[in-house]
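REQUEST ID: PR-0412
SUBMITTED BY: lab tech R.K.
PRIORITY: routine
TASK: structure prediction, single protein chain
INPUT:
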Amino acid sequence: MEAKDYDEWYQTSRGQWIGKTEYALLKQLLMPHEKESLLDVGCGTGYFTRLFARDLHGQVTGIDLNHSWLAYAKAHSVASEDYVEGAAESLPFGDNSSDLTISVTALCFIKDQRQAVCEILRVTRRRFAIGLLNRHSLLYFQKGRSGGKGGYRGAYWHTASEIRTLFARMPVVDVKVRTAVYFPKGRFLARLLEMLLPGWLRWGGFIVVSGTKSQPHDKSRGALLND
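STATUS: complete
OUTPUT:
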């Protein structure tokens, strides 16, 4: 898929609804402070990077391996955000160099997910929010089976239990798992139900794990709270 086609999908009625719903969940779980720095790992065309750049008014950076998609992101910058070419498994940034770190479905296409998570946590100073695709969802049955369709082809779909395993013994506290986009076609009734259903339900197509990076003296490392 071309970068232009991917990004323009977010301008369709369904794409706008899904994009706004996913962004709202990411922002709610990330709990950003004004002017904090943020790193978007696997930023693609920069769709979510731009949204956070508009809201945070701090240093926002996107990183991705796809050169042409990065070029598109740079050409559509909205708030002087930076874009860097690089891999999630070996981020070219120092320890604790970003207040906040996000990644939106990028890990679904990365073979060494644990290494990518370790790198995300290494460069994070305060909080992180990682968006994934949920295997226990209607979206999976529509788009994810038999290798996936369209932009979902080749993607790995996670479950909540796999996420718990992935974050076991990681230097994190106050970890939460939430989902959104329960009915992915995004029709009127689906949008109404989305507002009424609680995020702790496990069957939304978009599943986000968030938490706070623990410090060396924090004895609650690896605690997973799903309240």
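NOTES: DSSP finds eight helices and seven strands in the chain.
REVIEWED BY: pending
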